[in-house]
Amino acid sequence: xxxxxxxxxxxxxxxRAPGVDPNGCPVxxxxxxxxxFDSDYQLDPAEALRWSRDQEPVFYSPQLGYWVxxxxxxxxxxxxxxxxxxxxxxxEKITPVTQAAQDTLRRYGYAMNRTLVNEDEPAHMExxxxxxxxxxxxxxxxxxxxxxxxxxxxxxxxxxxxEADLVDEMLWEIPLTVALHFLGIPEEDMDTLREYSIAHxxxxxxxxxPEEQVAVAEAVGKFWQYAGRVLEKMRQxxxxxxxxxYAIRRQKELPEVxxxxxxxxxxxxxxxxxxxxxxxxxxxxxRLLLENRVVWEDLCANPSLIPNAVEECLRLSxxxxxxxxIATTDTQIGGVAIPEGAKLLIVSASxxxxxxxxxxxxxxxxxxxxxxxxxxxxYGSHQCMGKNLARLEMRIFLEEFTRRLPQMTLVPxxxxxxxx
Length: 420
Ligand code: HEM
What we know:
Elements: H1 29-33, H2 39-43, H3 45-48, H4 50-55, E1 58-61, E2 66-69, H5 72-80, E3 85-86, H6 99-107, H7 123-131, H8 137-140, H9 144-159, H10 166-171, H11 173-183, H12 187-205, H13 210-236, H14 243-253, H15 260-291, H16 293-301, H17 306-317, E4 323-327, E5 331-333, E6 336-338, E7 343-346, H18 348-351, H19 387-404
Parallel strand pairs: 2-7
Antiparallel strand pairs: 1-2, 3-4, 4-7, 5-6
Helix pairs in contact: 6-13, 9-19, 11-15, 12-13, 12-15, 13-15, 14-15, 15-17, 15-19, 17-19
């Protein structure tokens, strides 16, 4: 390659591994060995990328075929500019789909279309505006009694047992039930949709084997068809609360903006967007707080600290570790040349631990005044629409747990596993 022109300015010329990036620059040994599916990254993505934040904040990963971005300022700049960095690949499958799985999906008439999160402008903003009302604080307030009731019911069941798997027995289920209520899904359909929802995640972000792919495709296909039937049922009577019902009503006014295909896709994608993100963020929050006993006791003594504690947990240990964009033109990030068509893995978990933005970044500090700057919900025009529902759920969980079970502790020496 030509002398280091356009190459990463942070790279140390003495430590190079074989392999070149799309600019023709040599790839460093750490970049060459970066693998987001290995256990270091899975267990603690921010820690696994500490070297990158310090030495090579934008690097090409030959294993992944993506540019990885790890510093706060760079991740935020990418989120902010959705023209140069399109979100169109946000839900692209990480593992290529086998022919057998494609055939299976086709049999079910699976036709998942773009949904807000991976849509370009101007279509995206038109839809986002048309569908925003259900996410406003006064609308969300309608859901608060339901969240509190569910939390208390589940806690009642756990309290006398003495020991519980919080994820299996509570934190997985409640955000799913809340998501289904939020969408306005009829009670009688909840159990079936509950069964299918996990398949969608494995299908998008997982590493299923060829055999698993077919099984997952079966479930995704069934999920798709069932979602269509529930939607038809909702069309019969779209009155009342619920985002999908609201969307059906908006379709009458704006048929070009809120299309049939969009409604069907959103019905399926919405469940996943609202469910696992919140379930995992809550599980991470409970773990983090119980590992920091002084903070936990502060919250038990003073519940008004809870909202900021939720935010700080989302910063330190949020559930969405990274997001994706694709460069629509030749550009630069942090001084590194990025060619048109380059795929970017923007690691918000790493950005949230960047000492250039957060003082003492690895400490859980619920008194921090810039906690809400975290990028766990993304940033800019695609920023998570459901962030206030997620916050509401996490706050209520903490209010109820600290009140009912201030003495609770983590089971020692347990092994935690993560969804890849
Ligand atoms: C802790 C929980 C959650 C996390 C960490 C999370 C994270 C995210 C992220 C990273 C994005 C992409 C942001 C971007 O591209 O800038 C996003 C978008 C979105 N989220 Fe969430 N989310 C959570 C909960 C929810 C909930 C509860 C709902 C629905 C009730 C929801 C609905 C959406 C929607 C509709 C979008 C697309 C917005 C757009 O592209 O305009 N999310 N979320």
